[in-house]
Amino acid sequence: MRAMVVNKLWIIHRFTPFESVLASITIKPSIHLFKEYPKGAFQMDENNEPKIQNIPELEMTIPIQ
């Protein structure tokens, strides 16, 4: 996972290099899951990374020409 700062906001994205030339790109929107207490704390997975939940209704595939 990589992080960068844009206008003082943290943007975290997961990046995996492409193995070959792509025919399309699928965008899978997601949200971070938070604990009820303390407020604002991320729920963490077994690798101690923030848990995310995908939103399949917003998924979009874009063809590449």
Question: Can you offer a commentary on this structure?
Answer:
The protein has 65 residues and is mostly beta strands. The chain has a domain at 19-63. It has no helices and six strands. The strands form three sheets. It has a two-stranded antiparallel sheet with strand order 1-2. Strands 3-6 form a two-stranded antiparallel sheet. A two-stranded antiparallel sheet has the order 4-5. The radius of gyration is 15 Å and the shape is elongated. The model has no long low-confidence stretch (mean pLDDT 81).
Low-confidence stretches: none
What is the rounded distance between the termini? Answer: 28 Å
Provide the structure class.
mainly beta
Rg of Cα set: 15 Å
Q: What's the number of helices?
A: 0
Mean pLDDT: 81
Number of strands: 6
Strand order of the largest sheet: 1-2
Tell me the overall shape: elongated
Q: Beta fraction of the residues?
A: 35-45%
Helical content band? under 10%
Order of helices and strands: EEEEEE
Largest sheet features: 2 strands, antiparallel
Would you summarize the structure shown here?
This protein is mainly beta and 65 residues long. It has strands at residues 2-6, 9-13, 24-27, 30-32, 52-54, 60-63. It is built from no helices and 6 strands.
How does the SSE layout of this entry go?
Blueprint: E1 2-6, E2 9-13, E3 24-27, E4 30-32, E5 52-54, E6 60-63
Antiparallel strand pairs: 1-2, 3-6, 4-5
Which descriptors would you attach to this protein?
65 residues; mainly beta; single chain; 0% helix
